[in-house]
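Students often ask why inverse folding is considered easier than folding. One informal answer: many sequences map to the same fold, so there is more than one right answer. In these notes we will look at a single instance of the problem. The structure comes first.
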């Protein structure tokens, strides 16, 4: 840092001697960090400052809501005067923003002036910025309404910088379907949670949200019954929020536990249920047949219609029902998106009689979901997806069970590791991907941001950088709050599976430091030992202080509330580690007070280990886990790392 400051000072002095002011210096143009990573980004020459006054030109065909969103973004960025115009000013004395579809003449003109061309892919856009004197030209061109909305989301990130670089971004998604499926067991999200989540999906350029909470009785156990009017109205408000965020709201029903596949009355009941949802603006539907018994029929009529129960017969029966639903959807709305289904065998790509029956009988238009090589797969490769394509007779829609935490081995955890171990190139073999999030909506955004960024641009995806972006986004770009969140994320890094081995390691950053402390103490060099203990003390302070920073109000309040017991436990573990460091320091110096420090550390560690999850917030209540197997083990081992020997 000192060298950089010295260099800048010398350069300013040189410019001054030459008769130019420091303000006139040409600062380097740096590549902005945009998430999801764009398909292509090319830097130009120069930068522009947004300032207080801009000209806004909305081309014909631009949705008024999209224009309103641009205005909102500009005002939040400090713009106080927005002048509208119908043509590009002859002199760009302030930033001029042109927004509209690729087909508009003024948009094509603006792109040409910026040396840019339109993106012609579905949901694609071009964003070009041209610096010119005190002003400049920013063009937002969308291939369609969705693409233009995505361009505005990129603008949102650009105006957060002090200066906007001259650049051209041409961008479009790699996967047609990207989003989340609220498909977990336990307490469903509140309508407020869902509203916040839909806004988040819009900002991350997602396009799909599937409403499928397992504990909504009217979608599963009482699927034949109509929704109460108040619930239907609340869902209608949610559908409108999704539409405003260019997110397709998909309603999922789970009739499998009780449906009679051959009964026309049940089929009509299901279609009436969809009709009621269509009345509040839902146009996309889903039939979930996961987590059901398919080795026995729910009614005798199915035995007559399809023969003895079994996997193959179940595949035939399910196909009959789903084909009828797909036909009804197409008849009512020829432009409707295809029906989505999740099969009973959703968790691998092995050949089976059930999959063969679906492959032979299921309408090819119907989208099939698949969770990968396991219910919670440790990794997913392109060959895995190719195997699924072969097994189901179509490219599948990935249901990724990360970061969902509704199963026993995830009890007591927030799953906050980066989204990783999914192979670049999956976009060639999938129709899309949906993340199944946690019961805690705001903490889910950490991993979901990765899922969405991967679905947008799997070949340009960087897991760690997206992880850091998620922290900054939750922290409102506050540096100190971002660092505090990353401390928490590291303590919740472990990602379990249904097997015995997790697919993400536990607390890798903390473990590396604690291993270093162990090695330094074992090595015996006094200077190295003291340096390591000092580093441990700083880490303990960071862990102990992070919860208060996260609660201070800069971080999204929903995150702080939903992570409350984890923050409580983390603070206690940090205090315990601080006392442990004090004990090691005392022992290294031959101070008999070390024993007292270690005893106090053990007492507080016991309190930390006893912190419980919020009752009813998750499927499996129980003690909160913070870097378990790493932090607790070090604190327990610490008294034996240095013998407490009084020195003269």
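Output (designed amino acids):
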């Amino acid at each position: 840092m000192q060298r950089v400051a010295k260099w800048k000072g010398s350069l300013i002095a040189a410019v001054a001697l030459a008769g130019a002011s420091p303000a006139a210096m040409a600062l380097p143009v740096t590549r902005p960090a945009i998430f999801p990573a764009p398909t292509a980004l090319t830097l130009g020459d120069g930068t522009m400052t947004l300032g207080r006054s801009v000209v806004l030109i909305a081309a014909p065909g631009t949705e008024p809501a999209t224009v309103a969103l641009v205005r909102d973004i500009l005002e939040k960025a400090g713009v106080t005067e927005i002048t509208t115009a119908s043509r590009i000013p002859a002199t760009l004395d302030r930033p001029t923003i042109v927004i509209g579809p690729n087909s508009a003449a003024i948009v094509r003109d603006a792109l040409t002036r910026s040396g840019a061309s339109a993106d012609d892919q579905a949901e694609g856009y071009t964003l070009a910025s041209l610096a010119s004197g005190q002003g400049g030209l920013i063009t937002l061109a969308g291939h369609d309404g969705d693409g233009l909305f995505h361009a505005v989301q990129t603008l949102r990130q650009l105006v957060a910088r002090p200066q906007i670089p001259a650049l051209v971004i041409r961008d479009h998604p790699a996967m047609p379907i990207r989003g989340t499926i609220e498909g977990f067991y336990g307490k469903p999200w509140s309508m407020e949670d869902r509203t916040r989540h839909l806004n988040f999906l819009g900002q991350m350029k997602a396009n799909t949200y599937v409403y499928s909470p397992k504990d909504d009785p009217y979608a599963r156990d009482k699927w034949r019954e109509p929704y109460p009017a108040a619930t239907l109205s609340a869902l209608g408000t949610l559908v409108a929020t999704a539409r405003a965020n260019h997110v397709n709201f998909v309603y999922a029903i789970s009739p499998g536990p009780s449906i009679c596949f051959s009964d026309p009355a049940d089929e009509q009941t299901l279609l009436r249920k969809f009709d009621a949802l269509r009345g509040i603006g839902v146009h996309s539907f889903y039939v979930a047949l996961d987590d059901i018994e398919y080795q026995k029929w729910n009614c005798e009529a199915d035995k007559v219609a399809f023969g003895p129960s079994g996997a193959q017969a179940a595949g035939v029966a399910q196909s009959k029902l789903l084909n009828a639903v797909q036909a009804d959807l197409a008849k009512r709305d020829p432009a409707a998106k295809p029906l989505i289904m999740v099969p009973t065998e959703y968790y691998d790509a092995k050949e089976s009689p059930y999959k063969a029956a679906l492959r032979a009988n299921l309408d090819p238009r119907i989208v099939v979901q698949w969770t990968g090589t396991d219910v919670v797969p440790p990794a997913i490769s392109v060959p895995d997806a190719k195997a699924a394509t072969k097994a189901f007779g179509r490219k599948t829609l990935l249901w990724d069970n990360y970061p969902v935490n509704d199963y026993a081995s995830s009890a007591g955890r927030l799953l906050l590791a980066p989204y990783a171990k999914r192979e670049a190139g999956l976009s060639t073999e999938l129709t899309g991907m949906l993340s199944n999030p946690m019961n805690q909506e705001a903490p889910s955004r950490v991993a979901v941001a990765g899922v969405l960024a991967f679905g947008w641009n799997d070949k340009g995806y960087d897991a760690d950088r997206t992880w850091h972006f998620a922290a900054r986004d939750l922290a409102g770009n506050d540096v100190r709050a971002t660092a505090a969140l990353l401390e928490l994320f590291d303590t919740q890094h472990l990602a379990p599976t249904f097997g015995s081995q997790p697919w993400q390691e536990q607390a890798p950053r903390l473990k590396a430091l604690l291993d270093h402390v162990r090695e330094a103490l074992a090595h015996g060099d006094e200077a190295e030992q003291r340096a390591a203990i000092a580093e441990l003390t700083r880490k303990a302070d960071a862990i102990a202080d992070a919860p208060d920073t996260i609660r201070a109000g800069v971080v999204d309040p929903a995150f702080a509330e939903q992570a409350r017991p984890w923050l409580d436990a983390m603070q206690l573990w940090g205090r315990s580690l601080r006392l442990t460091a004090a004990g090691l320091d005392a022992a290294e110096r031959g101070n008999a007070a070390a024993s007292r420090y270690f005893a106090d550390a053990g007492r507080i560690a016991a309190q930390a280990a006893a912190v419980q999850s919020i009752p009813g917030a998750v499927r499996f209540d129980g003690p909160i886990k913070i870097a378990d197997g790493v932090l607790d083990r070090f604190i327990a081992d610490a008294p034996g790392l240095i013998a407490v020997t009084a020195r003269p």
